[in-house]
Amino acid sequence: MSRVYNFSAGPSMMPEKVLKQAAAEMLDYQGSGQSVMEMSHRSKVFQGIIDSAESLLREVMNIPDNYKVLFLQGGASTQFTAIPMNLGTKSGKADYVLTGQWATKAQKEAARYIQANVVASSKDKTFSYIPKLDPDTFTKDADYFYICMNNTIYGTVYHELPQTGDVPLVADVSSCFLSTPLDVSKFGVIYAGAQKNMAPAGLVIAIIREDLIGNAMDICPTMLNFKTHADNGSMFNTPPCWTIYIAKLVLEWLKNDIGGLENMKKINETKAAILYNFLDNSNMFKGTVVPEDRSLMNVPFITGNEELDAKFVKEATANGFVNLKGHRTVGGMRASIYNAMPIEGVEKLVAFMGEFEKANS
Ligand SMILES: *Cc1c(COP(=O)(O)O)cnc(C)c1O
């Protein structure tokens, strides 16, 4: 068996240890005589799994007690609707910053239900930077202020959070979840689709300040109402049991093998630095994002020549570096280097890029 280095933006690489453990427990989870795939979500065994997933997440992220952790479905995209329907009920206004496709989709969806103001955008330069924000331009009585923290497609991240005062900050953290420590108390809601940096597809984790639950619009579907899931321990209906189980294994790996989010951050900084240093010194490849807003997770780069980009992607694939083709709106390449990508994977990629550069210049 030979495994590739998978630079996919999501679904993406998982820690090998987690895959092996899931394989070992596939037919008989801890003496239950069943796979987690097969067991009732109302069983004691599964209750143990979801409870430990939540308590591990609370521990690893240091989540304050006045926040609920919800295990949801529908992908991050469903939260584009759930957020305005649950939070947009006082003034019916919210502010959005457009830093890419996901933020834009979220704003468009919110605008169907509330007044979703765009306070800033970086669309003018293909979202290659995070716009500077002036709090004087924010809506004073907004129900919330919305950002997409790490922009998966464009490779930017907020290194500083907007100063929103009493207005709850809502962040889509799908592609930077668990990559560094995060001060949860600075947010009203954070949510993440699991398939980027946590688990297989099918699970969204939402971390919500308690006072923001229970104010949903009357028309809010029961399944999108945060209160439904908060009141029922994320078991109003059948949760994505298998994915929650894998998330639990990943959290155990983060806690016990990595040693927590401070260490995870150091490893992620090391990996990103290897790649960015190479890009900054290369005569062929260059990064597309302004240096001060670079993401630790998603690194887009180009050669400036589409044929050469295609040749690179093809040869990289043949050498075991897969899913490097960039998003169609940026072109070129994108390396997603989430938590599970080992340092060695980035070192080998950079060595390969160096050889390619030599051979083709
Ligand atoms: C992938 C992604 C989404 C969409 O996630 P789905 O689970 O496919 O709905 C939303 N936001 C960000 C930041 C993403 O990276």
Class from helix and strand fractions: alpha/beta
The share of residues in helices is 25-40%
CATH class of the largest domain: Alpha Beta
**How many domains, in number, for the residues?**
2
The radius of gyration over CA amounts to 21 Å
Q: Runs with pLDDT <50, length 5+?
A: none
What's the CATH topology label of the largest domain? Aspartate Aminotransferase, domain 2
Structure explained in plain terms:
With 361 residues, the protein is an alpha/beta fold. It folds into two domains: 17-257, Aspartate Aminotransferase, domain 2 (3-Layer(aba) Sandwich), CATH 3.40.640; 260-359, Aspartate Aminotransferase, domain 1 (Alpha-Beta Complex). The chain has helices at 16-24, 44-61, 75-87, 101-110, 194-197, 226-231, 241-258, 261-281, 306-318, 343-359, and strands at residues 5-6, 67-72, 93-98, 115-121, 144-148, 150-151, 156-157, 169-172, 189-193, 204-209, 286-287, 298-302, 321-322, 333-336. The strands form four sheets. The chain has a seven-stranded mixed beta sheet. Strand 3, helix 4 (101-110) and strand 4 (115-121) form a beta-alpha-beta unit. The longest helix is centred in the C-terminal third of the chain and has 21 residues, at 261-281. Pyridoxal-5'-phosphate (PLP) binds next to helix 3. The site of pyridoxal-5'-phosphate (PLP) has 12 residues, from helix 3.
